[in-house]
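Why show two proteins at once? Because comparison is the fastest way to build intuition. When a single record is shown, students tend to memorize it. When two are placed side by side, the eye starts asking what differs. So, the first record is below.
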Amino acid sequence: MVMSDLHVNRVVLDYAQECQSHAFGFARVVGMKGRADHPGRFNKELNLHEFIGENAEAVGAEIAVAAYFGLRDFEPTLDTFKSEADVSGRLEVKWTKYLNGSLIINKTDRDNDVAVLVVGRSPVYVLAGWIPVKMARQPRFHHRLQDNYWITQRDLFPITDLRSSTYGDNI
């Protein structure tokens, strides 16, 4: 990502959006009686409060994607987990706090979705890029230690191109 892209792809949540992300992050964890040590997670070392915080950040990233695309009536979901996309019925939002982090695709991700990588920490998020999930499942992206796919930011399409692509018709 070029430094000039950071400003263009940057979304800053307001206080109400931050509170909404925290409330939904908390509700998601409580709703699934979740703990960070469940089998689907790689990092099992988080305590409950840290796990809720990660979920709140992920919801914040979803809100940032919806805001970036001008979706005014966006409401995060609570209990859909991997049964539907996070935003606009087709966008699966992947969040990491690491500004140079990779987009990670797991077995539970749906081939028909488009994955959007969001980096940063609330209230400031940067939409780093996107890739169709099916395209991300290439042998060159396979992470042999985690049995998932890691796509670096340089291998993602620019977020500015998503709406005008053949994948952007549902946004």
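Second record. Ask yourself what differs from the first in the token line.
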Amino acid sequence: MITVFVSDIHGNIEALQAVLAVVDTYAPDRIICLGDVVGYGASPNECLDLVRTRCKTVLLGNHDAAASGGPEITRFNIHARVAAEWTSRVLTRENREFLQRLPLTHNGDGFLCVHASPATPRDWEYLLDRFDAEPQFAYFNAPVCFIGHTHQPAIFMADPAGCRSLPVGSLSLDPKRRYIVNVGSVGQPRDRDPRACFVVYHELASRIEYVRVPYPVETAQEKIRAARLPEVLATRLATGE
């Protein structure tokens, strides 16, 4: 069984299309989206149409919630709020209703999926380091929890001496350990690598693999500017910050 995890697409159809082209080379059994299909980028409906076709499971992210009528928008900074309001105006009725029906969590065979954190999924906590991650292990029992939200790939491992942060890359999972795996972002990476990011989970081998994919950033930027969205949302795509 091969499962691909994508997250934080953020209305970036160029990144999503490039990722799915590479995903297909793995011939996965399923694709799971950990949320935030929309927000920031200028192609929300195009991304939702593709995700609905290709992903077996889709979770709710905070930008998905905000753009479809949730109260999350009140917690956004000005740039995120402007993008969420614009997204809300352009969403088709079908896509808005799809977002409103999305679950916060998904229990797989031996893993948990959530957009932000297993402890309080709709508080949208940021697990940025091992200190943030350590208390989260008390809130799930599965060997692995896959998350997104921070746009930063990360692997945290529970250890008797405390939570450890592991190097991001290809990793064979120790059956005696438990992990939180942040799969990074397809549409707006923030780890200073502008390439789209996703994770392949080789379940029989108990191995995760991070994959980075270049895409036409300039095209995505042009669409953001044409939609008159905040300039920072375009410029940050080139730097991965």
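One difference worth noting in the second protein: Helices lie at 13-23, 44-54, 62-67, 78-90, 93-100, 130-133, 217-226, 231-239.
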